[in-house]
Recover the amino acids of this structure.
């Protein structure tokens, strides 16, 4: 029976391709757009990811990672004084302007870390030594900065190297290391320096401390420690895990802030919905036409005594097969896009495992819907009609 | 035709299978490209010495507190007698200011003293001359030979001359006093060590101008065999501080250098915090309670006055009112 169903399906190559193409587009649109959306949302948390720290303590009204409301310098000591904290270090983060040797300006994300412990420094150094940050007027830049800050980004020979220098707000900055970092939402590269020097690079204001990074003592979870910090100091403490259902997680809070306060989800959501509609329209229409075409054969089978259930099963098998193949092709196209995106770090792409799984269920739902229409048409068909013609 | 439809049929199945494999590869590459999870910092920050502690930033000072040496009057520095690290005793000269104007005055006063002493001699000679004339007249017993008026005149002359001599003596004494005063003033231009100690900083060199209220003090003197830490505690944590609490210090920049601290006192006056971040603009945004602790200066590694220290003071948690 399955063999017969597949033979019927593949018999008409044009219709088969049409069906597969519809589902392919639907899959591609849903998976690719959802992944780009996730990637973009992930970029918003780049600072938290690049400055790997278990706990972020920020001013009590800060809602997401990209806004800073500076605190007083002594707040580091206050956080340090909480019993649940093993260590606490100051962190500066802010957007600053870099002046290149040819006079052009670029914005960068400046991160200032504690000079002694280097807590909050980049985790993967590609070149140079993180400890060299203690030398005067030194910075560590990320891979993106090697191109972005070069006078001729197209020319690989002009890339910024270790030893090159530029100016941040008229103060000299010498590159002593290149690290790997995630791209920021604002598009500026990440530049690390020590906290004290970050304050020199930054136009001074009354309060400068962006956040305090901290770790819990042994035998205490980050959540408990964060709650303890909030209770004792009145500041807001976020834990740093990954996007999840914990509202006290900085990644989660940041992503939800962007979802609620920007039009990004609407834009991407519309594309995903259109993908779904395109899939439904093409698949249902083509499959219905396919059933109509084969109605004679199906009617003959019915006349030969095949039950409605078995005929329905045949249609479902056909729909499932088309769905799986279309889905597979969609994944292939998405992979091609993803490889390019991951290689270039642009456009944003991040695919959690839920996306393909949900897309698979959605595609199969579309197929079942199409099969259902065929089944209804078939069940209304009288076997005698075959002989009438 | 059959071949083409077969090609599409199996080709699409193969491509679909490949698609599933490819997306798994993407997932793997993506996982490899993720940022590493937050680990410990490259250099582990100091472990807290106490379960419940108040953290503070402190600065190392000489135990006697650092004495900024001042000058009595502004002037050029003629000679600096000490170097950094010199150990000085009380009243040892530190540096000398230019005293040429006073020496010049001294010269003229000395000349006046010469005049005064010459004046004394003139007055003495005058007096002895008048006195001998008077004596001669008085020796004449015949009252007719000497008029009474003449005798009286002579006597008055002697008295005047005596008074002149006294005036000349007074002049001499005045110039002598004046010399002493100038010597004292000259003496004052040599700045002496107010107490035993060590020279921690020299900001003045011969030929420079020493002002009475300079931006940086000319010399800093202190006793550096024992140091003290001045720990700044945020006023929000100030209520947790009590007399005599134990404390531990960590050198900023090298958390492996640790030293126990001995309590000295809590400063009774809460001061505005001066940012210790080294920025030129002072940002006063909170007030801090200062607690003073002392420590013996370890021989290795050397500690220096002025270094920043992270201080942990053992203090029980403040339990919020239920």
């Amino acid at each position: 029976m399955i063999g017969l169903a597949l033979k019927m399906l593949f018999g008409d190559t044009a219709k088969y391709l049409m069906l597969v193409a519809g589902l392919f587009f639907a899959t591609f649109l849903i998976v690719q757009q959802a992944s780009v959306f996730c990637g973009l949302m992930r970029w918003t948390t780049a600072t938290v990811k690049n400055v790997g720290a278990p706990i972020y303590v920020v001013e009590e009204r800060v809602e997401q990672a990209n806004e800073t409301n500076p605190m007083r310098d002594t707040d580091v000591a206050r956080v340090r004084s909480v019993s649940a904290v093993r260590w606490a270090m100051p962190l500066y983060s802010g957007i600053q302007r870099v002046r290149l040797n040819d006079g052009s300006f670029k914005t960068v994300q400046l991160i200032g870390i504690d000079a002694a412990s280097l807590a909050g420094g980049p985790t993967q150094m590609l070149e140079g030594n993180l400890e060299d940050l203690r030398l005067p007027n030194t910075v560590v830049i990320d891979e993106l900065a090697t191109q972005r800050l070069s006078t001729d980004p197209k020319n690989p020979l002009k890339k910024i190297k270790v030893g090159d220098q530029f100016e941040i707000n008229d103060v000299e900055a010498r590159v002593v290391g290149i690290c790997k970092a995630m791209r920021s939402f604002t598009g500026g590269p990440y530049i690390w320096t020590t906290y004290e020097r970050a304050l020199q690079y930054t136009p001074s204001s009354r309060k400068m401390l962006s956040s305090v990074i901290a770790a819990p003592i042994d035998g205490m979870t980050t959540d408990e420690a964060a709650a303890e910090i909030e209770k004792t100091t009145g500041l807001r403490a976020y834990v740093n895990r990954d996007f999840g259902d914990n509202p006290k997680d900085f990644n989660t809070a940041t992503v939800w802030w962007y979802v609620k306060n920007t039009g990004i989800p609407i834009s991407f959501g519309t594309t995903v919905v259109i993908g779904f509609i395109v899939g439904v329209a093409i698949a249902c229409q083509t499959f219905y036409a396919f059933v109509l075409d084969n109605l004679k054969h199906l009617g003959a089978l019915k006349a030969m005594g095949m039950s409605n259930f078995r005929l329905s099963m045949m249609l479902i098998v056909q729909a499932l097969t088309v769905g799986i193949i279309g889905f597979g092709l969609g994944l292939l196209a998405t992979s091609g896009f993803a490889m390019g995106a991951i290689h270039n770090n642009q456009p944003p792409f991040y695919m959690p495992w839920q996306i393909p799984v949900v897309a698979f269920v959605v595609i199969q739902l579309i197929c079942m819907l199409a099969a259902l229409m065929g089944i209804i048409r078939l069940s209304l068909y009288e076997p005698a009609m075959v002989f009438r013609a | 035709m059959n071949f083409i439809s077969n090609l599409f049929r199996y080709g699409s199945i193969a491509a679909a299978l490949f698609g599933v494999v490819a997306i798994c590869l993407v997932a793997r590459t993506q996982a490899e490209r993720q940022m590493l999870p937050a680990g410990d910092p490259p250099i582990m920050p100091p472990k807290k010495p106490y379960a419940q502690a108040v953290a503070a930033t402190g600065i190392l000072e000489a135990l006697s507190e650092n004495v900024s040496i001042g000058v009595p009057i502004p002037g050029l520095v003629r000679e600096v007698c000490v170097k950094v690290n010199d150990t000085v005793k009380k009243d040892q000269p530190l540096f000398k200011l230019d005293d040429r104007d006073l020496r010049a005055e001294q010269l003229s006063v000395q000349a006046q003293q010469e005049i005064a002493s010459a004046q004394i001699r003139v007055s003495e000679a005058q007096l002895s001359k008048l006195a001998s004339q008077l004596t001669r007249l008085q020796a004449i017993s015949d009252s007719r030979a000497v008029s009474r008026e003449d005798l009286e005149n002579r006597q008055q002359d002697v008295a005047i001359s005596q008074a002149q001599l006294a005036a000349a003596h007074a002049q001499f004494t005045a110039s002598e006093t004046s010399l002493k005063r100038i010597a004292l003033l000259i003496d004052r231009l040599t700045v002496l060590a107010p107490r035993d100690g060590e020279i921690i900083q020299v900001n003045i060199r011969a030929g420079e101008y020493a002002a009475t209220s300079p931006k940086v003090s000319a010399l800093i003197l202190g006793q550096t065999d024992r140091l003290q830490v001045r720990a700044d505690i945020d006023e929000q944590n100030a209520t947790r501080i009590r007399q005599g609490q134990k404390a531990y210090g960590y050198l900023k920049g090298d958390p492996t250098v640790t030293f126990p601290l001995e309590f000295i006192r809590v400063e009774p006056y809460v001061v505005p915090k001066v940012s210790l971040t080294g920025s030129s603009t002072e940002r006063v945004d909170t007030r801090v309670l200062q607690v003073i602790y002392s420590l013996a200066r370890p021989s290795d590694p050397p500690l220096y006055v002025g270094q920043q220290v992270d201080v942990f003071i053992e203090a029980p948690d403040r339990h919020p009112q239920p």
